[in-house]
What we know:
The protein is α+β, with helices and mostly antiparallel strands. It has helices at residues 12-53, 57-71, 80-88, 95-105, 109-115, 123-130, 167-170, and strands at residues 149-155, 165-166, 171-177, 191-194, 211-215, 235-239, 242-251, 254-258, 268-271, 276-286. The protein is 32% helix and 20% strand. Helix 2 (57-71) packs across helix 3 and helix 2 packs across helix 4.
Amino acid sequence: REVDYFSPLSSPLDTFAVRWVKRIIRIVPATRTSLAEAQLLAGRYLREVRLRLGLGLREVQDASAILAAKENNEEMYISSARLGQIEIESSAPSVFKILSLSAIYGIDFLHLLQRYGVRPDRVHKYRKKVGRQFTHPVSSTVYEPDTTVTVPMRIDPRFHWETTQLINRVVAIWGEIPAALLAHFNPREHIYAYVGLKDYTMFPLIRPGALMMIDDRRNRIVQEGWKDEHERPIYFIEMRDGYRVSWCELEAGKLILVPHPASPVRVQTVNFPDDAEVVGQVVGIAMRIVSGSETTLE
């Protein structure tokens, strides 16, 4: 039931704010109820596990006392009375007590957290929603064992590192590995390309040996609207004799491939669309910014 706790308002803005506060008031009880239910179900689950293992309340208490003493952390101790409360009431144990129960019962710690409504596997999704604007470290921890990403497992032996090519066409076998840090790597959503070791077209903006992520939905040349070279769209072009990565201009049926001013490569003009196709726009780059010693690529 909605109850009006507010006095008469003086402006439409105040009315709008109160409507949202009232919505929150109505939502909170439902959220608490679902959380209480999760805690109750988790407690029942723990009781079933304990009984299946043939452990009494006092035995679990004694085992937790050993762990608490070993770690010098009294929060890991679970009295028989507290355990009984956890099992039959809507009462969530502390993270340290969950750790003790995980060790004593042989249950995965993260699985127990999920039983109580905590979802570690959603951490990376939450980070996307928060959208921090500054540079920061990114955890590569995989919270969910089933989390996998698609990566190239074997390169076609005919692949030549000297020329710029599409990664999707030279990978012989794609496989899946568990790595939350690479969650955005999906060849079904983007095209990936490799910049040849002799391709200096966009140097130093894009260096030879770089890996590029290409959005094939952005395949129309944009010739205005940017402030500087860093905002100017870079395109991946398929030619009759190979691939190019460069800035582009369109003029009277001609596609002009514009290299970086610091590059030794010259401007190239081709018939469009007869002799060239815009595969898409480069939207991501992975590359070294410091030249290292020459290494053998296997």
